[in-house]
Amino acid sequence: MASVIETPQDYIEHHLKHLTVGEGFWSINIDSMFFSILTGLLFIWVFRLVAKRATSGVPGKLQCAIEMIVGFVDNNVKDMYRGKSKVIAPLALTVFVWVLLMNALDLIPIDFIPHLATLSGLPALRIVPTADVNVTMSMAFGVFFLIIFYSIKMKGALGFAKELTLQPFNHPIFIPINLVLEVVALVSKPISLGLRLFGNMYAGELIFILIAALLPWWSQWLLSLPWAIFHILIITLQAFIFMVLTIVYLSMASEEH
């Protein structure tokens, strides 16, 4: 059964707790996994539905919205990706829409899902997957592996090794220094990519929780409503930034020099 919430501190701790199985390193946040998979399936279902029903005539509202999103992502890929690949545009579209859907779950009233969890006898349930560092870092490391793959594919293993050891100082004596600098720069890409998204979404969720915990119920809307409206910009901007950095990093990896 869920624990009794008596103080604002208990309320905040309860809303920041994940539904977890396992212990330590091998623990899994079931709620983050469930809602991330759910939003991913929603993305696939909606886009497949629109693709099957697409018409060359006057499009419906949903088809028009999807076409605008696809065109927006495609234009960004053409502007930023210098190589030629059939994978980058679909990847960028998937990243943008999936992250946007996961972020948008933060707009659901903060007590709705935890209340359903309490009624179901669950100890905790968090709904925003991107407020879980495990999810954002998993996505970031997925991009990191693609960076390594495209670097080796375009430059070859030897070319990639030279890029790590002969830049920025092109002399054998500086190989140890170059290697340290380039490895740090390479590893910092997924870390900054994942932590940026996590930090912004976690902070946004925490503000909703603080408003609900510290203000009487009848006055919460005075702050929660303006913050929710402003938060729409944040969730969209964070999805866009994640997509743009993914494209830029893969474009840099695909350069043959």
UniProtKB/TrEMBL annotation:
InterPro entries: ATP_syn_F0_a_bact/chloroplast, ATP_synth_F0_asu, ATP_synth_F0_asu_AS, F0_ATP_A_sf
Subcellular location as annotated: Cell membrane; Membrane
Example GO molecular function: proton-transporting ATP synthase activity, rotational mechanism
Domain of life the protein comes from: Bacteria
CDD domains: ATP-synt_Fo_a_6
Keywords, ordered alphabetically: ATP synthesis, Cell membrane, CF(0), Hydrogen ion transport, Ion transport, Membrane, Transmembrane, Transmembrane helix, Transport
Record carries keyword Cell membrane: yes
Biological process terms in GO annotation: proton motive force-driven plasma membrane ATP synthesis
Nuclease is among the record's keywords: no
TM region positions: 33-51, 87-113, 133-152, 197-219, 225-250
Gene Ontology cellular-component terms listed: plasma membrane; proton-transporting ATP synthase complex
Membrane topology: Multi-pass membrane protein
Family to which this protein belongs: Belongs to the ATPase A chain family.
PANTHER family per UniProt: ATP SYNTHASE SUBUNIT A, CHLOROPLASTIC (PTHR42823:SF3)
Function: Key component of the proton channel; it plays a direct role in the translocation of protons across the membrane.
Protein name in the entry: ATP synthase subunit a
